[in-house]
Amino acid sequence: MALEIWTEKYRPKSLDAVKGQDEVVKRLKSFVKSQNMPHLLFAGPSGVGKTASAIAMAREMFGENYRDNILELNASDERGISVVRNQVKDFARSKSIGDGPFKIIYLDEADALTKEAQHALRRTMEDYAGTTRFVLSCNYSSKIIPPIQSRCAVFRFKPLQKNIIISILKNIAQTEGLTATDKALEFLYLASEGDCRKAENLLQATSAITKNIDEKHVEEVVSFAEPQEVAGVINLALEGKYNAAKEGLSKVMIGHGLSGLDAVTQIQKQIWQMDIPDPLKIKLIRACGEYEFRLVEGSNEFIQLNALLAEFSLLSENDTLG
Question: Do 259 and 222 meet the contact criterion of CB atoms below 8 Å apart?
Fold first, then answer.
């Protein structure tokens, strides 16, 4: 199979093809029908359809020549004030090509823009509203300055449900001539953490190994341990079997190529699934947060993870004694 970015190939060509964002799609369709819209702010987690919705709306609004009337910029790469003053302003001041009522500037990851660039953008949005509409996409709308938020209609994108992501993966597998077991698709969903783009990329990476995909093949690509393995390590620590828990965690990390942060993340997720008292769960989650912060600050992975297991043992002992 030729190398190809599936996320581009399977990007929706119309708003009807955008999955899991029914309320957003309904409002965007009304803009297409009226051939008019305000500046827009798309906010939500990664891989849930923000860029896909913007491009699909542009396709419906401008037809096949939509690329002549839309400028896509990624603010995480180019986020200085010079970009706003040069690229954005030059595109915004020109009229649309063809029958389009205006042009669209799509600014992805707009929350990565510096404050100075956002203030410059605010003025540009105001001055060229007659010829250009801005669509800003971000993960955290709180990082967008209030003057820009007040100029935009805000659209909140919600995380995609499990059944939607799995149905998308099944469609891709069928189109690409792949077979994937239900467990493999479930594993891809868990590893993607609800990010459909990540799930598609993991499926593509796994397809390089085999056309008949099962959970073992996914494990080879994903740095993701079996939930039962992680639960076993936690249970050993809670039972006071510290040495066994430490050895078990080392085997899991080495066997699956996990980093310290990956291990803490999976431990934290597994705690919520375990049949232990809620007060103990809260203490364990709090400990995970503390040690995750230490790892982010640059502490030694194995020392901190061993300390985390030791704290689990102490917390369990205190909880039992208490």
Answer: no
pLDDT digits (tens, 9 = 90+) for 26-41: 999 999 999 889 999 9
CA distances from 322 to 90, 279, 311, 317 (A): 68, 11, 16, 8
Task: Please state, in angstroms and as integers, the Cα–Cα distance from residue 88 to each residue in 31, 110, 134, 136, 249, following that order.
Answer: 23, 13, 10, 13, 50
DSSP string, 232-288: HHHHHHHTT-HHHHHHHHHHHHHHHT--HHHHHHHHHHHHHHS-S-HHHHHHHHHHH
Closest among 44, 55, 45 to 18, alpha carbons compared: 55
**Does domain 6-156 fall into CATH 3.40.50.1260?**
no
pLDDT digits (tens, 9 = 90+) for 9-25: 667 778 888 888 989 99
- Give this prediction's pTM: 0.76
Give the single-character DSSP code of 161: P
**Which of the following CATH numbers is that of domain 162-221: 2.40.440.10, 1.10.8.60, 3.40.50.360, 2.120.10.30?**
1.10.8.60
Hey, is 95 helix, strand or coil? coil
CA distance 153 to 189: 31
